[in-house]
Amino acid sequence: MTSELKRYTESNRAAWNEAMPKHQRAAKAKWDRAFERVGYVCMGEEEVTALRRMGIRGKSVAHLCCNNGVELLSLKNLGAGECVGLDISDLAIEEAQERAARSHIDCRYVRTDIYDIGAEYHGHFDVVYVSAGALGWLPDLPRFFAQAGAMLRDDGRIFIHEIHPISEMLPFDDPKTSEDDLLRIIEPYFQTEPYEEHDSLDYVGGTEYTSTAAQYWFVHTIADIIMGMVNNGFAIEHFAEYPTDISAGHRRIEAAEAGIPLSFILVGRKTM
Ligand SMILES: C[S@@+](CC[C@H](N)C(=O)[O-])C[C@H]1O[C@@H](n2cnc3c(N)ncnc32)[C@H](O)[C@@H]1O
Q1: What was the pLDDT predicted at 1?
Q2: Fewer CB within 10 A of the terminal residue: the chain, N end or C end?
Q3: What pLDDT digit, counting tens, does each position of 98-112 carry?
Q4: pLDDT exceeds 70 at position 2
Q5: What b/e string do you get for 232-270 counting C-beta neighbours within 10 Å, with b at 16 or more?
Q6: In a domain, 198, yes or no
Q7: Is 249 part of a structural domain of the chain?
Q8: Ligand 1 geometric centre to CA of 178 (Å)
Q9: What would the pLDDT profile of 137-154 be if each residue is shown by its tens digit?
Q10: Domain annotation covers residue 246
Q11: What is the spatial distance between Cα 183 and Cα 169, in angstroms, rounded to a whole number?
Q12: Is residue 247 part of a domain?
């Protein structure tokens, strides 16, 4: 891996390790309780419908950038077969492992940089799953799709449920933003350089802090994402856009019913 790529991903790792105790203070007990309920699923109806349409029952799944693992536990509860979650954050993986053990749900979690995943997982999975707020942390999207393709068996699927890049042009929820400014474009759609930020990553508990580690966030357009898949051997099987906020940062825009795409689901089939 290039040292430039590692500089970004290791800084993001440190930033996520800084954020996780704050997320855990706000939500760890809630998630622990939720998964005491047999068959609990944390995803919304749009996503569950798309997962069922693609087929999830019995499928072996790798969740890339799995954070605290709750979506993977849910996929297992939807009937998935072998489930492996992979994430760069030490503390996120520890939390995920602890909850899987506590709830007796058979999911395995591995701490790794996505770009370091090796041959042991090549050709191994039926589904690579990616969800809310993952792709933006990844400096090299084509390489990510090459990695996802390598991990899939022939005819495997990549399932992405992500924050819509259009929504990143608009302000995040902030009580100081007036109703008039809610739909004001404040960022470009075409942003080739990463954003380097030290703002609070605690979108779960809402604590304000300054991150010691720099967070590097990369805006990937819809074209970057679709062509990243196509150029790495995926055929697009399904694409849908939704006015549903899955970022926890655009609740007011969602409530305003302004007709803005806030999330999307994209499914690709490995063809080579
Ligand atoms: C916002 S979370 C997305 C997961 C989940 N949808 C959620 O909302 O919690 C982003 C995750 O990406 C992980 N991540 C960032 N860069 C990564 C990399 N290079 N390799 C593996 N995981 C990475 C972070 O550690 C973090 O847990």
Answers
A1: 64
A2: C
A3: 999 999 999 999 999
A4: yes
A5: bbbeeeeeeebbbbbbebbebbbeeeeebbbbbbbbbbb
A6: yes
A7: no
A8: 31
A9: 999 999 999 999 999 999
A10: no
A11: 9
A12: no
CA–centroid distance, residue 170 to ligand 1 (Å): 22
Spatial separation of the C-alpha atoms in residues 271 and 268, rounded to whole Å: 9
Please count the structural domains in the chain: 1
**What is the pLDDT averaged over residues 31-59?**
98
Question: Would the pTM count as exceeding 0.85?
Answer: yes
Q: Is the model's pLDDT at 65 over the cut of 70?
A: yes
What kind and span of H or E run contains 142? Answer: helix 141-151
**Closest ligand 1 atom to Cα of 92:** 27
Q: Which of 249, 82, 222 is CA-nearest to residue 164?
A: 222
Smallest CA separation from ligand 1 atom 12, residue:
65
List the CATH number of the domain containing 144. 3.40.50.150
Please tell me the residue having the least CA distance from ligand 1 atom 10.
Answer: 134
Give me ligand 1 centre to Cα 134, in Å. 5
